[in-house]
Amino acid sequence: MKVSTMTGMAAALLTVMSVSSTDVRASEPCMHSTNEILAPQLISLISRVQRNVAREVRGYRTSTGAFFEYVSGDRFPFANAVKAPDGTLWSERLRLSSQDVRYRNGGTVKDGIVTQSESIADAVGTCARLDCQLPTKNDYEKLKIYFDLDANGLLTEQGKKDYQKVFPDMEEKLFWSSSIYHPDGGNQGRAYIFNGSNGAIERRYRDIKLSVRCLRQN
Fold first, then answer.
1. What is the CATH number of the domain that holds 143?
2. Residue-wise burial string across 8-46, b where 16 or more C-beta atoms lie within 10 A, e elsewhere
3. Residue 125: other Cβ atoms inside 10 A
4. Burial profile 85-123: b = 16 or more Cβ within 10 angstroms, e = fewer
5. Residue pLDDT, tens place only, 15-28
6. Would residue 38 count as lying in a domain?
7. CA 16 to CA 101: how far, in whole Å?
8. CA distance 211 to 100
9. Do 24 and 99 reside in the same domain of the chain?
10. pLDDT on residue 175
11. Residue 185 and residue 59: Cα distance in Å, rounded?
């Protein structure tokens, strides 16, 4: 469901319509016709409508009622991004010249989170260079609640349709999170991932290459 709004248009129309011929004659010389007098007001109306169109909010509303706003590159360092209902900005899948680029999940771990990496081959380091962060496992869990889920926390068929509308580059891709999986508190060789096919949170070894999307907390 695409949603568009143009606030102020109705008010502008009412303003012009409320100008009566009596008001015009009282403020303007009699040699001017009504059309000539209204012309500046009509021009002003057109200008206001154009400004409202420029501010038009484009986005998509899921079956759960959550609205995702499409965000242009002048507000986020990506050509295509979306703003979640909680204000978090999510990037498109990272690519290079329209080609999918995959990254390892290397870097320094602190409190169960990969926090820093100087390598452009690592997911965390790449997002940091874009003044963004690699999503955590919890970030992906929060994102999922805006879509229809089954009893196991996976996307239903409707949930998948909505996901594909909001994130058309998400399907059949595995995305790194910055959250480390270490059940014994020691081994830090695996990290959580997000499965774009069904919304599952899974685990993979950090040295393999997977897709990446970044986020920025608003």
1. 3.10.100
2. eeeebeeeeeeeeeeebeeeeeeeeeeeebeeeeeeebe
3. 19
4. beebbbbbbbeeeeeeebbbbbbebeebbbeebeeeebb
5. 444 443 334 333 44
6. yes
7. 54
8. 8
9. no
10. 96
11. 42
> Does residue 80 contact residue 92 with C-beta atoms inside 8 Å?
yes
6's tokens: 């143009």
pLDDT in tens, 36-54: 555 666 666 655 554 444 4
In a domain, 204, yes or no: yes
pLDDT by residue (tens digit) across 103-128? 999 999 998 999 988 788 899 999 99
| Structural domain range at position 188 | 93-216
In-domain check, residue 81: no
pLDDT above 80 (res 68):
yes
